[in-house]
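in:
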């Protein structure tokens, strides 16, 4: 009977050792999975921070371009008023030239100068219009980049939420096992 109890004790001790070994392997696997999840979470957090930084820089660039666009628009309006004023002066000079035919030569040179100024103003307006078009195109490109960045950010957030739900489901499944 004593030998049977000793044998039984040894079998129970060996069974406990096997259970401890199995538990140890299981714990090691769970720790590996937990570390992999933590690493993935860290990588995604860094990616999210990078995307947020890019978003802030893009918003700053959009604001800068909006300010430049407003300045160019103001300059274009100012030049339009100057051009209108110069045209009024030209019309007045023509009327004076007809009224005072004997001083036509003096008015002719003044008219020529006014025309040159108008041509310079028109060239300036054309250049500003070209710059305004370029700025609008750059703004559109930045807006497109911003939209893509926002879409990427939304996709990343959706993936993040999906992964968190999956991890929560796995954790609840493991707890229930």
């Amino acid at each position: 009977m004593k030998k049977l109890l000793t044998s039984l004790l040894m079998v129970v001790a060996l069974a406990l050792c096997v259970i401890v070994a199995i538990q140890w392997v299981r714990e090691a696997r769970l720790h590996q999975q937990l570390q992999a999840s933590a690493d993935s979470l860290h990588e995604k957090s860094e990616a999210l921070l990078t995307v947020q930084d890019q978003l802030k820089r893009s918003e700053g660039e959009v604001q800068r371009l909006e300010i430049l666009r407003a300045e160019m628009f103001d300059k274009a309006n100012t030049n339009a008023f100057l051009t209108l004023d110069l045209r009024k002066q030209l019309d007045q000079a023509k009327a004076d030239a007809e009224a005072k035919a004997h001083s036509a030569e003096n008015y002719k040179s003044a008219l020529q100068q006014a025309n040159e100024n108008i041509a310079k103003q028109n060239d300036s307006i054309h250049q500003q219009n070209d710059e305004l078009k370029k700025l609008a195109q750059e703004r559109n490109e930045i807006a497109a980049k911003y939209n893509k960045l926002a879409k990427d950010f939304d996709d990343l957030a959706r993936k993040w939420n999906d992964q968190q739900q999956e991890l929560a489901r796995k954790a609840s499944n493991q707890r229930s096992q």
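note: The chain has two helices and no strands.
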